[in-house]
Design brief:
alpha+beta; 1475 residues; eleven-stranded antiparallel β-sheet; single chain
Length: 1475
């Protein structure tokens, strides 16, 4: 509908115009019918005068009328029924929708840009994110008023359809046109007939409708001439006759149809009728002859409504049937019932017209000249006929009133008197009696005043009209005729507003009183509504939007949903147009309007209102309001078959974190599923749309390559490897990467690869996903998808599977060939696992693991998941069974409502932050965890541990078996195992016997290689071994161990069992020890070079023994056998086991030494009991003699001192293995500590050669292995456990321990009981041992090191008897042996003088002296032994200590002299007796 922007003054003027009736003969109708128009329709576009009109008021003052409009209507003798009016107004609103493609009306209010009347719902629904883009061309500081054509059409139709009433005359007919065709045989007689007909209608009691203004109605005679038929002379002659009969002022000759209907339509003639014919009004009725109804098509919609038309049957000799109104409803249909859709049910003629659906042209026989003739006709009628008639009538009424009232000459002076006197106080409406039923006779003076006021109002004489209304109002109020008074008040207010120059303010209280009277007293809602429509327009024009909104809201009621909806919507627009826009009030009232529209059956308008309100509510956290609006939008869209919008609205409810109750959420979900199913049924073959539920946390998606871990079978425990059940820890991930890098470097002959990338079996958000992961043909790919159900109702997903795309490629052939895409098909390429039922309870986060089985090589892209979304009947647990159990049985009670759809897995990669450009912008790298490359077949190793212990004693040796199995389809080779704890296990050295007993026999036989000992002496048995045999040679990595497979190859399906020895770590506690098995395929692959298998062993160790050892140089320069240099080794063994372990006692069965230079020779044990048993908390001491090996060789010499009956050959597996491995780890630990010290302090100056020679004298390379057995009682059975402890002796006189030491810590690697141990035995002296080195000390030997430079020994008789009575001096010969322990020449000075500083020395040495020289100087060559003959002189009997000589030594090429202290050696005691 074309809308012309009207001011409030123009609207009010056009709302009340002079009404002119029209009576046409049948022939005249035929003439106009050639243009597809009735007579009233023909002249309708020309009924507004284009020029000013002058008339005189009763005071003979000239009055100018501008822009006057008249209304010409057919005579209808039946008032329209209320149901018909309601249906008409409903239809008018229905067909008036926002036009497609128009620029949206936008109001900028505060922070909101509100799109008000865009037909495209997309621009305002919440899921349309870019609706603001339509506003870019608008100035945000300007207010744009929204046009609402449906309201304006409703308002226009409402005002025109108001039935005429007796209390006012505004819609009474002022004149009547009688139209006759010139082609009729007797036109004058026809005029006479029509005149009688009009007279009968007006004055006969038979017709009460329509109403006429005055009894003497102006009759205007119109002769219609069809120019295309010729006969102009006849028409002119008839017209002349008419002028003589009716006068020139009362008739007119109108010539039309200048163009024949058979001529071509090349000439484009404007069609001014279309805009009027789209308005379906009651007053513009035409009697059609070509059918009861004519239907026209609205260009903007598919709605068809009947225009008013009349039947052509006759009654009482009248040519038209005036008895029934054309909009009268059939009695068979309910006037208030609509079918709930956006169109009114059409009748048969509408169906026929809809089939044609052709637009009918109007005015095809008219030329522009004819248009001008019609315009001239209206002007002539108004100037010469209508206005003189009205002017005359006003004068007559004025004269009648003056004569009846007996007042002065003019009404003006009368009104001045009335108004100047004292005013009667107006009574309030509530005080007045309900006398709305009071009726005045037609000739009552009060009605004459009202009639005069209405006539003045119609011809824009507003001042006179106001005065008359004001006078009438007083009379009516005095008579308590409330209906009449309300009408006078209403029009007085309008007249006051329309007065030019605004002499008085708009009396809004008049309107308020009128509205209240109409509504509450007269019970006439139509008149009250008219008041509201008029007053609201006036208030809006004065920018009184708040008052206008209150007025509009006041008239909303339950009796008319359509009226309430329209008024609420207008009130909402008032709120948004205020100086400070009230946006939330706008939205709230739009919601109310949408609700009332919905109740009125106006689904499209309801949808539009909710969408506009949604613009305000969305994103403000008002989730319940959003849910309500979206739910309504979804329902209305579904009713209008806008299924996509319905799905989007319901989707929006579900994807927000809803605060609704569970029942409400269930209702929302069922609605969504129902709507969605309807959508999918429309396009069953279309692409699967996206489902909103459940939520998917894409970044938490994990991808696992490979088979699931096998469960343990009895004593067989499968390697833990890696699984989706394990949590990711970056520290462990880095450890595994280090282990794999070591294995790869070892396989690559010791060189690390620069482009090394670790094997990744499980990809998650923490892993490096920048590369394409590798999968293997026929090995499953498991994708773990994190679903979250945000609702409080359970969701049931059925037929859940992955959605993928695959490009086959042959990586072996040089040319990859064509790559074709196959999406979700081709089971021969990719097999997909389908989860039949997946239940998610309310607000549950649950992981779904979906598998794919690739059967070909190529590129796989995992796109998302596809499933059926549904619900179950009850939210409670079914039949008291846990839901997880139900999930396995698959017996859900679905409510039958499910839809199929998909969700994509889109993972955002990590943010790039390396370059300057990336830091200043936001860029994300790729995440390719869902795009694996499928490579050709690879071997697959599985490792099983047989009888693997979970608990060990510290140092305990346990024999177990490992089974290697190749479950792949091609042979594997190059198996290596790498671990950070190589001292924990061994597969045996190269000399080990690879034909072990069965695993079950390990309980009854020793883990060691033993031989029966024949001799009973405690002398040692020696053997030798090379460290390289045990993987600890130079240039190799002990962490990487080759698994000794037979033939080094494991064929597909084959398995082999190998023995493995374990040794409990020396630290008490729980240990996680990581093994990484590395293996390769026989065939070299382009994509995958090797594979790995992980295993984490968890061992709990409990305390067993602690071993401490110290080595001292023996005083004897040579032993009895003359073996040369020798040392004493003191070994302390303590049982620190706790009683919980069930160990009864420990037996020390053997002590072995390992060194390149030294070996244990014998045990100097004074106890006769050879078996050393240690009960709980007992300590045993051993003294062992060590001698230097005769020949220093590269091999290590093992010497075994056996205390039991069987010798354990310590130079074989596993004893030597564990010794060498612990030696290596100890060395590695020492190096790491030194590197820490070096990095923390200043670097030490490197010692010179001489100092190094001195230091070497105090160094000893001797390692002690203590082998033991423990007797354990378990389940009433006695078990024998074996084990070994290692002590590494580096320095003479320095105590060494069997457990690793950390500097400055009492708690040693998790051993919490060392504090107790320190209190029990103060000899350990941890803190003395851990004294930090002074890194800034000069590089010079310590006194302790100098004391080991020269070894001294005194040879003398232990007892010497002398006859003191014969000779008072006793002289005893003493030999001092000096041995140079270093590799350099040494200058030695022997001073025999006693020190006199110490009283102790005086006490002991006071009575003996050395004879001869007091000082000797000599030089000792490397390793030279020299003797010095001395004499000691005694004067008394007694026991003397001869160890008083002081020995000073220096290297020959050094200057500084140092004393070699002999305090550490044993005292040289001599007994002097008398004979």
């Amino acid at each position: 509908m074309a809308q012309r922007v009207q001011s409030a003054q123009e609207f009010l003027q056009d709302s009340f115009v002079p009404l002119v009736a029209a009576l046409c003969s049948e022939e005249a109708e035929k003439v106009t019918r050639k243009n597809n128009l009735g007579f009233c329709e023909l002249i309708k576009p020309f009924c507004r005068l284009t020029s000013e009109v002058h008339m005189r008021d009763p005071n003979n003052q000239l009055h100018i009328i501008k822009n006057l409009k008249i209304a010409v209507n057919n005579i209808i003798t039946q008032p329209p029924q209320q149901g018909a009016i309601r249906k008409l107004l409903n239809d008018v609103v229905t067909v008036s929708q926002p036009a497609e493609g128009l620029v949206a009306n936008v109001i900028t209010a505060g922070d909101y840009d509100l799109n008000i009347s865009d037909r495209s719902v997309k621009a305002s629904v919440p899921w349309y994110s870019s609706w603001k883009d339509t506003l870019m061309g608008l100035n945000t500081s300007t207010f744009y008023s929204a046009t609402t054509p449906w309201f304006e059409a409703y308002r226009e139709s409402f005002l025109q359809s108001m039935p005429s009433s007796d209390h006012e005359f505004l819609n009474h007919y002022v004149a009547c046109m009688l139209v006759v065709s010139s082609s009729e045989p007797e036109p004058v007689e026809q005029f006479l007939k029509l005149s009688q007909e009009q007279h009968q209608i007006q004055h006969s009691n038979e017709y009460s409708y329509p109403k006429w203004f005055i009894p003497n109605t102006l009759k205007y005679y119109v002769l219609l001439h069809d120019v295309s038929l010729g006969e102009e002379q006849r028409a002119d002659s008839i017209y002349e006759e008419m002028k003589q009969r009716y006068g020139t002022q009362g008739c007119y000759l109108l010539k039309i149809n200048s163009r024949g209907s058979n001529r071509g339509t090349d000439e484009q003639i404007p069609d001014p009728w279309s805009q009027y014919l789209q308005k379906n009004t009651i007053q513009t009725q035409e009697p059609y002859e070509d059918g009861p109804y004519t239907v026209i098509s609205n260009k903007n919609s598919d709605h068809f409504i009947p225009l008013d038309g009349l039947g052509n049957d006759s009654k009482d000799g009248l040519s038209n049937n005036f008895k029934s109104h054309p909009l009268q409803l059939d009695h068979t249909s309910d006037s208030s019932c609509f079918d709930g859709t956006d169109y009114v049910k059409p009748n048969s003629s509408m169906h026929e017209s809809k089939k044609l659906n052709t637009w009918t042209p109007h005015g095809t026989c008219l030329t522009l000249t004819d248009h001008d003739r019609i315009r001239q006709f209206i002007q002539e009628f108004t100037f010469r006929g209508l206005l003189p008639h009205i002017e005359k009538t006003i004068r007559q009424l004025n004269d009648q009133l003056i004569s009846r009232k007996g007042l002065s000459r003019s009404l003006f002076s009368a009104t001045k008197k009335w108004f100047s006197g004292s005013k009667v106080p107006e009574k309030s409406v509530n005080e007045l009696k309900s006398t709305s039923g009071l009726l005045y006779p037609p000739e009552a003076p009060e009605l004459q005043i009202r009639k005069m006021a209405d006539l003045c109002f119609l011809v824009q004489h507003y001042e006179l009209a106001y005065n008359c209304y004001h006078t009438a109002k007083k009379d009516f109020l005095n008579d308590q005729a409330m209906l009449y008074a309300a009408g006078a008040l209403e029009m007085a207010a309008v007249s006051a507003f329309l007065q030019p120059g605004a002499p008085r303010p708009y009396p809004a209280h008049y309107m308020d009183t009128a509205i209240q009277t109409y509504r509450d007293i007269c019970k006439n809602m139509m008149l009250a509504e008219r008041c509201v429509l008029l007053s609201a327009e006036v208030l809006k024009s004065q920018s009184k939007y708040s008052e206008a909104a209150a007025l509009l809201i006041r008239l909303t009621s339950e009796d008319s949903d359509l009226r309430s909806a329209l008024l609420l919507e207008q009130a909402a627009h008032c709120f948004i147009n205020m100086k400070s826009p009230m946006v939330r009030k706008f939205a709230f009232h739009m919601i109310l309007a949408g609700h009332r529209y919905s109740k009125a059956g106006q689904k499209k308008h309801a949808l539009r209102c909710y969408c506009q309100a949604m613009q305000v509510y969305k994103g403000k956290g008002w989730s319940l309001a959003e849910d309500h609006i979206n739910f309504t939008i979804g329902r209305q869209s579904f009713t209008l078959r806008q299924l996509d919008n319905a799905v989007s609205a319901f989707r929006h409810i579900l994807i927000n974190d809803s605060k609704q109750s569970a029942a409400q959420q269930g209702a929302f979900l069922r609605e969504y599923l129902y709507v969605y199913r309807n959508v999918s049924q429309l396009s069953p073959d279309g692409p699967l749309p996206q489902l909103p539920l459940p939520y998917i946390n894409s970044s938490a998606t994990r991808v696992f390559f490979g088979h699931d871990r096998r469960p343990s079978e009895g004593e067989k425990q499968a390697a833990t490897h890696i699984s989706l059940d394990q949590e990711y820890e970056s520290e462990f991930s880095y450890q595994w990467k280090e282990l794999e890098e070591q294995a790869v470097a070892a396989a690559n002959k010791g060189t690390a690869l620069s482009n090394f990338q670790p094997t990744q079996y499980c990809l998650n958000k923490y892993s490096d996903n920048s590369r394409f992961p590798l999968g293997v043909v026929e090995e499953p790919i498991t994708v773990e998808v994190a679903f979250r159900n945000p609702l409080k109702v359970p969701l049931l997903l059925t037929d859940l599977s992955l959605l993928w795309k695959f490009q086959p490629k042959d990586y072996n052939s040089k040319n990859n060939g064509e790559t074709k895409e196959v999406e979700t098909s081709g089971k021969d390429m990719i097999g997909a696992e389908v989860i039949s039922e997946f239940l998610m309870n309310s607000e549950e986060t649950k992981m779904a693991r979906l598998k794919l089985f690739p059967h070909q090589t190529g590129e796989l892209h995992i796109l998302g998941v596809v499933y059926n979304l549904g619900t179950i009947q009850s939210t409670s647990v079914l039949d008291g069974v846990d839901p997880s159990v139900v999930l396995q049985t698959g017996k859900f009670i679905s409510n039958g409502m499910s839809v199929r759809g998909r969700q994509d897995l889109e993972i955002q990669g990590p943010r790039l932050n390396s370059t300057k450009e990336e830091k200043t912008s936001i860029k994300y790298g790729p995440d390719r965890r869902l795009d694996p490359i499928i490579t050709e077949e690879m071997p697959l190793l599985e490792v099983f541990f047989i009888n693997f212990p979970t608990g060990l004693l510290c140092g305990e040796i346990r024999k177990t078996y490992v089974e290697f199995m190749n479950v792949g389809k091609c042979p594997l080779t190059g198996v290596k195992v790498v671990s950070k704890r190589p001292e924990f296990f061994t597969f045996g050295g190269s000399s080990a016997i690879l034909t072990p007993l069965s695993p079950s026999a390990s309980e009854h036989c020793s883990a060691y290689k033993t031989v029966v000992k024949h001799s009973t002496s405690l002398y040692s048995l020696t053997s030798s071994a090379d460290s390289s045999d045990f993987g600890v040679g130079t240039g190799c990595q002990p962490e990487v161990i080759d698994v000794p497979l037979p033939d080094s190859v494991l064929l597909p399906g084959a398995s082999v069992q190998l023995p493995m020895w374990l040794r409990g770590p020396d630290e008490e506690g729980v240990h996680e020890i990581n093994f990484l098995f590395y293996y390769e395929s026989i065939r070299k692959h382009s994509k995958m070079c090797h594979r790995v298998l992980r295993h984490t062993a968890v061992i709990c160790t409990s305390r067993s023994l602690t071993v401490r050892a110290t080595v001292y140089r023996s005083n004897a320069l040579e032993d009895e056998k003359g073996d040369g240099d020798n040392m004493l080794v003191f070994v302390d063994v303590e049982n620190i086991n706790t009683s919980e372990a069930g160990v009864k006692e420990f037996h020390i069965v053997q002590v072995s030494s390992n060194s390149k230079n030294w070996k244990l020779q014998e045990s100097i044990n004074l106890s006769e009991d050879k078996d050393i048993k240690l009960a709980n908390r007992e300590k045993g001491k051993l003294c062992l003699k060590a001698v230097r090996c005769k020949h220093s060789v590269e091999n290590y010499t093992f010497a075994d001192i056996v205390f039991g009956s069987e010798q354990i050959i310590s130079s074989t597996s596993p004893c030597a293995d564990f010794f060498f491995r612990s030696l290596y780890s100890d060395l590695k630990r020492t190096r790491s500590q030194q590197s820490v010290h070096t990095s923390q302090g200043a670097a030490k100056p490197s010692p010179d050669n001489a100092v190094r020679l001195i230091q070497k004298c105090s160094e000893v390379d001797l390692n002690i292995i203590v082998l033991w057995k423990a007797y354990v009682v378990e389940d009433n059975k006695q078990l024998i456990l074996e084990g070994q402890h290692h002590v590494v002796l580096h320095t003479v006189g320095k105590e060494a321990f069997s457990f690793p030491q950390k500097q400055g810590f009492k708690k040693i690697l998790g051993n919490s009981d060392w504090e107790d141990l320190e209190q029990e035995s103060s000899e350990i002296g941890l803190f003395n041992f851990f004294r930090p080195e002074n890194t800034s000390a000069p590089a010079r030997p310590s006194l302790e090191q100098f004391s080991n430079l020269i070894k001294t020994s005194l040879h003398y008789p232990e007892t010497y008897n002398h006859p003191f009575h014969q000779k008072s001096l006793c002289i005893v010969p003493v030999t001092l042996l000096l041995s140079n322990c270093s590799q350099a020449d040494v200058d030695v000075i022997i001073d025999l003088r006693h020190k006199t500083t110490s009283p102790e020395t005086l006490e002991i040495h006071g009575s003996f002296t050395w004879l001869g020289q007091t000082q000797y100087k000599l030089q000792l060559k490397s390793q030279e032994v020299s003797s010095l003959q001395l004499k000691a002189c005694f004067v008394h009997t007694g026991v003397y200590n001869l160890g008083t000589p002081r020995v000073f030594a220096k290297l020959s090429d050094q200057v500084t002299l140092f004393e070699t202290s002999q305090q550490n050696s044993m005292p040289a005691l001599i007994i002097i007796g008398n004979v």
